[in-house]
Fold this sequence. Notes:
Layout: H1 2-34, E1 42-45, H2 51-54, E2 58-63, E3 66-74, E4 77-79, E5 82-86, E6 90-97, E7 102-106, E8 112-115, E9 119-125, E10 133-139, E11 151-157, H3 174-182
Parallel strand pairs: 3-6, 5-11
Antiparallel strand pairs: 1-9, 2-3, 3-4, 6-9, 7-8, 7-10, 10-11
The protein binds dinuclear copper ion (CUA).
Dinuclear copper ion binds next to loops.
Amino acid sequence: MANDEGLIYEYVWIVIVASIVAGMAASLAYYGIALDLNPACNATPIDVTTLTEEFQPGVKQIAPGVYQVNILAGQFFWNPNKIVLEDPVRIEFRITSKDVVHGFEIVGTNVNVMVFPGYVAEFVWEPPKDAQGKYLIICHEYCGIGHQYMQAELEIKRSNTLLSQGDITNGSNTEDVGEFSKVKYLKFNGVIVSEG
Ligand code: CUA
């Protein structure tokens, strides 16, 4: 009798635990399938010990408006730390770390990825047509004593500058930060190429 009673509790707890697991799996499926929130970033393994030979930081234009940007992260720098792109349509980023985990974020945009040593984070950003001027790049993952100094700058130049956007080129990113906060809740998802 006592044993049967114990068995019932076992079943009850099995059902409770199974429902929690099923609930979690269902929420993952919901985010991935219904909301289409999937990591927009590839991670290709790279050998940290031979990194300097295999990975060349810098900017390459591979077609009109198409850029390949290789960035090396380390305590406490982004290399290159000043990137200037003219009329970018498609930017192919490849970012890796030589030491610890860093977080690559272009403030005022929806670009936000984790950068792990031993992996090259690869993703494409098609900046909005009105994106121009100077954008601050920060590290959003605490990586050591100099974390807050880990900054870089991305400048987007437009040859057909619209007069109405003249004020954005003057280095103020205030408006962009506002836009950023709108998509902030999607941050865990890495790069979000949403906004319509
Ligand atoms: Cu790199 Cu924080």
